[in-house]
Amino acid sequence: MAALIDALIASLTLGGMYALVALGLNLQYGVARIMNLSYGDLLIAAAVLAWALVSKQMLSPFLAMALILPLAAIVGLGIYRIVLMPLVRRAPNREALEADSLLATFGLLFVVQGVMLAAVGGGYLSYSFLSVPVDVLGSKVAANRLLALAIALGVGLGLYLMLTRTRIGTAIRALAVDPVSAQLVGVDVKKLAGLAFALGAMLVALAGVLISTFLTFSATMGVVFTMKALIIVIMGGVGNLPGGILAAFMLGAVESFVAIYGDPQLTLASNYALFLAVLLFRPNGLFGRASR
Q1: CA pair distance 15, 23, nearest whole angstrom
Q2: What does the pLDDT read at residue 45?
């Protein structure tokens, strides 16, 4: 029974983190149609910065979060305007833009990773924060994991309400569904695409700070988070936030149960097996409709 509770709690924690990571990428790609391959490295950059502020400057992770999130928004907006806008202007169609942006963000990945390696090296980093155990239905869970899960769920709910209950959220969803029609009704595509990149950068930075509170990480781990975010976005359907959230928790559940009841070395294989199964039986995403 204790092992089952451990697996369920681990599923929720991982799923919450994966959902937070994937929401930002889904937002960026769904609105701007730019697949940001440096996304996971921006997460690690936020985690490294949080580690430096907490372990070196003795700041609280919450204060570090308050400093990092606005910086992340500026960086995200800067990446879009400086690196990606020239590609948007010269691309003859959406397919060409996606191909060019893949190459550009792939190069940006190595730039971000190289800066981090020069700054902190390739070793593993961590710090202690709320690592005290909390009893949950007879299972001991670190308080930092529960706090990270609560924040991730709260932010995810807030983002969902913003996208479904506000005017700007409606414009973002309209742009994700049909950019041409959105422009015809007065939606400012460039402004909203920049906003999506800034908001996506804030979400991934928040995930990086939260992950740094309970996981050991290194400067070269960004590609792992990028790949998992891509899997979740494709499984859930591009621009489909409920589908992405469900996919994230499915991925977290499979990974946790395989690690506890099977072999931890098979967690990555189980993730890709789930991904392939969804591609075979739901190629348009978990909530997508089959094309006729």
Answers
A1: 12
A2: 94
